[in-house]
């Protein structure tokens, strides 16, 4: 078996249900720097490949009556903060292709990639909600086609000021070879000509994580994504996802399909009974007809055994952890589950590369 790729979702899923009321929830720090830095340092100490920040562009005030709802910090601002407090872990921020401007996003991602030493990645969202907050921007009729255009424009802008254009030659006085700097052609509805004000770190495209299961998602992921974030309640579903992405990649002539990384809701405690109690408070009990992430409720040993079994089935290339129930679930996952996976050869014991692309071994 290949070693797994493991990420951590930065949405604090351990605050679901009424678990935010627990004394150890740290809910008072939810919108602070220290809270997110501590989470990400735990992830980096476990040598995880990346942290991933989902996003939402709307907020239902009624949801705040009994919990955090969709309230959160802005992803790219947060990743800039985390870049300054970490050295190795990948930083994946969510971006809306429906409402954001490619030029602004390209500058932000380019800057994040530079200041983090090549650790930037992104997730492009179709953004089904949030139209009321962007009244002067018309939502595209075909969100997926628009997202493809958005990606291509952002990447074209990123390379409009390529890394090899910089000379910084003190002897000749040439700062840059302006012949290498270029403008960008219109793609779809985006007429952002460039060039970008921020130089590229290198010539590679940024690793893209695709989250979603809309019609045509396999083709979109096979064309653009390094990895897909999927709901995978069981191994059979996962094997179907793998086959679908294999076929989509083959049809495009891509030598390797995107990595399949299901979300793993992991609710851990010292005993199974304590974990079950936490799961009840976190609203993790499956409901008929309601899509759910893969879920493990139990001890560290239970989690390790379940992950090993799923990996052996061939249904996953890794996972994105969503610790649930308590801060303890996060600590047990990063300090015990992940090292146990490394001990059986399913995860690395240290970082072997310095960039997100190297961590994912995709580009």
UniProtKB/TrEMBL annotation:
Coiled coil: none
UniProt entry keywords in alphabetical sequence: Flavoprotein, FMN, Monooxygenase, Oxidoreductase
Location of the Luciferase-like domain: 29-284
Pfam families according to UniProt: Bac_luciferase
Presence of keyword Flavoprotein: yes
InterPro entries linked: Diverse_substr_monoxygenases (IPR051260), Luciferase-like_dom (IPR011251), Luciferase-like_sf (IPR036661), NTA_MOA (IPR016215)
The keyword Iron is assigned to this record: no
Similarity section: Belongs to the NtaA/SnaA/DszA monooxygenase family.
Protein's recorded name: LLM class flavin-dependent oxidoreductase
Taxonomic lineage from the root: Bacteria, Bacillati, Actinomycetota, Actinomycetes, Propionibacteriales
